[in-house]
Amino acid sequence: VSVITPAYNSQNFIEDTIDSVLNQTYSHWEMIIIDDFSNDDTIEIIKKYIANDDRIKLIKLKYNHGAAITRNYGIESARGQFHAFLDSDDCWNSEKLAKQVKYMKRNEYIFTYTSYERIDERGKSVLECGPSGSSKIS
Question: Within 13 Å of residue 96, how many CA atoms lie on the same side as its CB?
Answer without folding.
Answer: 21
